[in-house]
Amino acid sequence: MKKLMAANWKMYKTRDEAEQTARGLVGLVAGRIPADREVLVIPPFTALSVVARELAAIPGFSLGAQNFYPAAQGAFTGEIAPDMLLDLGCAYALAGHSERRHVLGESDAFVGRKVAFGLAAGLRMILCVGEKIEERQAGLVREVVKRQLDAGLSDVVPDVHPETLVVAYEPVWAIGTGLTAGPADVAEAHGFVREMLRARYGEKGNEVRILYGGSVKPENSGEIIGIDNVDGVLVGGASLRAESFAAIALA
Ligand code: PGA
């Protein structure tokens, strides 16, 4: 199982900026990615094609999208379909990122539709889950993560190939705040996600990658990646500069 080191650029970067960052990243990382790692860049839609060009044919790199609408095509003004992303060279897509749940109002059920639809369309899906600070303080971490995983995976076919499914545990209070969950909290949450994946998929649940996200930076990525059941990281702020994401990807 390859560790997945993912850069989520959110709503940052024009095409020129994205091209420069991707080129810088390739310069720093190409040829140095260990065989057991995969580096994933997730730019905004408008920069997918320039980033695809920079990453094309470079071993160890993949391209991903931040979102899509779960339909093949149709009258959905402003939306983008999975086939359009595959056409641009995307291998992965996110679903259930906390900003989409809590800023854009996406429900657990809608996230579940996206995960199943994206997988069926041929994308590898990264399902993001994680609790808000008040839920953590109320001792509800497991309940929230269980609810989001159950809904997020409810329509996924039972014989899903484990390599195509990824879960990202991202405590909402750690995203973009500079706060990271401590190693014990990360181990506990990831252990719980693993238990749930095993309950659902049996032995195959061990092969589904579980990423940690939330204020990952070069200074803490080495420690985080060494925690049990952490199979990669999903990085926002610290992925925007080639130098800092390169340091994380190779940590
Ligand atoms: P952050 O974002 O690294 O800026 O905390 C992580 C994410 O939103 O995936």
Provide the fold topology.
Layout: E1 3-8, H1 15-29, E2 37-42, H2 48-55, E3 61-65, H3 82-87, E4 92-95, H4 98-102, H5 108-121, E5 124-129, H6 133-137, H7 141-153, E6 165-169, H8 183-201, E7 209-213, H9 218-225, E8 232-235, H10 242-249
Parallel strand pairs: 1-2, 1-8, 2-3, 3-4, 4-5, 5-6, 6-7, 7-8
This protein binds 2-phosphoglycolic acid (PGA).
2-phosphoglycolic acid binds at residues 8, 170, 175-176, 213-216, 234-238.
The chain-level mean pLDDT equals: 96
Question: What ligands does this structure carry?
Answer: 2-phosphoglycolic acid
Report the count of strand segments.
Answer: 8
> Structural class, from secondary structure content?
alpha/beta
Describe the strand arrangement of the main beta sheet, using strand numbers. Answer: 1-2-3-4-5-6-7-8
* Shape label: globular
For the CA atoms, what is the radius of gyration?
17 Å
What is the string of SSEs from the N terminus onward? EHEHEHEHHEHHEHEHEH
CATH superfamily: Aldolase class I
How would you portray this structure in words?
- The chain has 251 residues and is α/β, with parallel strands linked by helices.
- It has a single domain, classed as TIM Barrel, CATH 3.20.20.70.
- Helix content is 40%, strand content 16%.
- The chain is built from ten helices and eight strands.
- It has helices at 15-29, 48-55, 82-87, 98-102, 108-121, 133-137, 141-153, 183-201, 218-225, 242-249, and strands at 3-8, 37-42, 61-65, 92-95, 124-129, 165-169, 209-213, 232-235.
- Strands 1-2-3-4-5-6-7-8 form an eight-stranded parallel beta barrel, surrounded by six helices.
- Helix 3 links the parallel strand 3 and strand 4.
- Helix 1 packs parallel to helix 2 (48-55), helix 5 (108-121) packs across helix 7 and helix 9 runs parallel beside helix 10.
- The longest helix is centred in the C-terminal third of the chain and has 19 residues, at 183-201.
- The mean pLDDT is 96.
- Residues 8, 170, 175-176, 213-216, 234-238 line the site of 2-phosphoglycolic acid.
